[in-house]
Each structure stands twice: as structure tokens, then as C-alpha cells.
Amino acid sequence: MEFALDSGNTAWMITAASLVLLMTPALAFFYGGMVRGKSVLNMMMMSFGAMGIVGLIWVLYGYSGTFGTDVAGLFGNPFDFFGLQGATDDASLMAAAGVPFLVAAGYQATFAIITVALISGAIADRFKFSAWMVFAAIWVSIVYVPLAHMVWGGGLLGADGITSGLSTPIDFAGGTVVHINAGVAGLVLAILVGKRKGFGKEPMRPHNLPFVMLGAALLWFGWFGFNAGSEFAADGVAGRAWLNTMVATCVAMLAWLATEKLRDGHATSLGAASGVVAGLVAITPAAAAVDSYGAIAIGAIAGVLCALAVGLKYKFGYDDSLDVVGVHLVGGLTGTVLIGFFATDANSTWYPDGALNGLFYGGGVTQLATQVIVALAAVVFSGVMTLLIGLALKATIGLRASEEAEVGGVDLAVHGETAYETLGARVVTEVK
What we know:
Layout: H1 7-34, H2 40-67, E1 70-71, E2 75-76, H3 101-119, H4 129-152, H5 175-193, H6 209-227, H7 236-264, H8 269-283, H9 292-309, H10 312-316, H11 324-342, H12 366-396, H13 403-408, H14 410-415, H15 421-431
Antiparallel strand pairs: 1-2
Keywords: Ammonia transport, Membrane, Transmembrane, Transmembrane helix, Transport
Subcellular location: Cell membrane; Membrane
Main location: membrane
């Protein structure tokens, strides 16, 4: 079929890609506000560093490794479209929607970038910036790209993969590829690098809650490109994804605040911002696969579970600095598994061939079993691969910043600057 440009769909997808790219600077503000003032610039630089590293790799071989010719169901041929050369618009992921190849490639780049950046929140205040940049390059190449291929590029976790005897897995916008993947990686790195000095003994409060709320607001805004854009067209399915993204997030925020109020006696701004992100994470894989009731239920369940899960690090003794595990891993698992209960094709023209209605919509347990299998496979793959990368880096260049840098502030020690001039003067005095 000869490619026919659809200017409306193309304009929407360029807009959606821009919205998703905005999410990484938004994450920088969200994470930056949550750390102490002496490491805010380092925290933000980890997000910006991920943009530079992953953006380059994606153009060179990341896209091809994800969507190139399948190799054993594990990854695509990285040389098929090396440097984004050799492809025609007929080969675009969005060719049926009339969207050119380069627009498709650019949109997918923004997903890879935000996934890597998400991991950084688990290792705040203590990770070497040089080690982070090397890790980002390796991890996106041999963890993100293969998993994205397995789920979206026709590999082992896709329609014809390991669950083909059950049903087609549903991951509309990245519950497994993005959030479970990043959450597991964050947990592994947090354990490998060790706890911050004073973890569990001294307060490590967010230094700038307005930054946190600004970041959450911009993440919410950008997430409409993340979820509604994953339809690859400006149509009713994109509208359904947009609406579900809005309502699930509203409900998750309310559920988180209610949980906080009952548990701690206060409904906090940090809780509101965290609830927003939890809702966004959970609805991501289900955005076009559930109706409004399903979106409300997913938001409510995710808000409560994630609010409770962020306390697990104190119980189990791992230092997930900014709750990547509690929000992204738990939220991603919640949304992915709940598809097995709430999926419905009643109100959507989008539905993968072979996928079934969820348990509560008359489909039995088959789709639920499919979702659980794929989620567990993503956990194992990401966990094992991240562990191997982390151990290799720890044994060679090292993972952790020096004790002096951690105590005095990684901003000044690593980047030679501070976010706040008065803080910089105080830190220099303390170090002397």
C-alpha cells in the first residue's frame, strides 16, 4: 500500500512527542524538589544527562534495535535503520495512520528517554554522575531496547510470544516497558549502591515542595501525549485514553490523600504530587483498554497501594530515595495486572487482536493470566540485566560518590556549583 500522508495525525503526533519530551525536564523538577538543597542540581542533571545519552543512542541504533527485523524474539536488528537511514514512510509504525517514519521514530525516542531518567530517583544524593552516564548508555541499549522490542516490536512478550496460547498482552503506553522496567532497575541500583548516610536516622525532607508540585503538574500535562499519543492518531481512541488519563489521576490523588489523612493525620502537598504520578503510572498500560469505571477503579486502587508501598523501604531496609519502587514499580504492576480485571472492548475501536475482556467484563481469567505472566517476565528480565550492569560498573569505575561529596553536597563536589548561593557558602564553611 502506498503511503498517504495524514497531516492531522502527523501534527498530533509531533505535538504528542513534544509533550512526552517535556516530561523529562518535568521529572527533573519533580525529583529535584524532593532531594535536599545540596544535591538538587545533580538530581536534575541526571534527567538532562539521560536526554543527551538516550537521544543520541536512539537515533543511531535504539529505534532499529526495537523495531528492526526480529532476532530470536529478543531484539531487533540494530543495523536495519542505523542512524534512521534506509527506511521509507511505508515502513513507519504509524504508516496506516498516515504518519511519516521519522515522526514515529522521534515519538518513540521520548519514551526511551523518560524511562532511563525515572531510574535516577532511586539513587539520589549518592551516585557518581560519571557512573550514571555510563549506566544510562548501557542500560538503554541492552535492557530498554530489548524489552521494548519484546513487547511492542513483535518479540517474546507480544501478540505472538510466550502468551500466544492464552491471549494478546495489553500494554497500551508502557506499563511494562517503561514503569515496571524503570522501577525494577531503580530497586536493583538502590541495593547495589547502598543507603545514604543517615538513612532512617536523620530527616531527609524535600527541600522545595513547590518544585515537586510544578514537576507533577508538568508531568500530568505531558502524560496526555504519552497516553493519548500512543493511539498514533487523532481519533476517538486517543480521546478515550486522554479521558481515562485525566480521571484515573484525579482519583489516585484523592485516594493517596485519604490514605495519608487516615494514616498520618495530614493530607500533604507531597502526597498530592505523588498521588498524581501514581495514577498516571497505573493508567498508562490500560488507557485505551478500560472504560471510565475501570479508570476510576484503577486510579483508586493505585492511589492506596502506592501510598502504602512507599513505606516498604523502611521495613525492608533498601534506600529508594524518591520512591521509584513504591510509585513506578508498584503502580506499573497495579495497572498492568488490573487490566486483567477491567479490560473491555465495549467502548473502544482499539483492542489488540486476540486480547480478551477482563474478569469483571465476562472474559474470565485468561487475560488476567496473560497480564501477570508478561509483568513477571519484565520484572525478571529487567532485574537480572540491571544487576549484571550494576555489578560490572561497581567492580570497574565504581557506583558511589565519595563520602566527602555526599556529606558536603554532590552539587558542589561534582558540578562545581550550587542551586542556592547562601547554601553554597554554608557548605564550603562546613567542609573546611
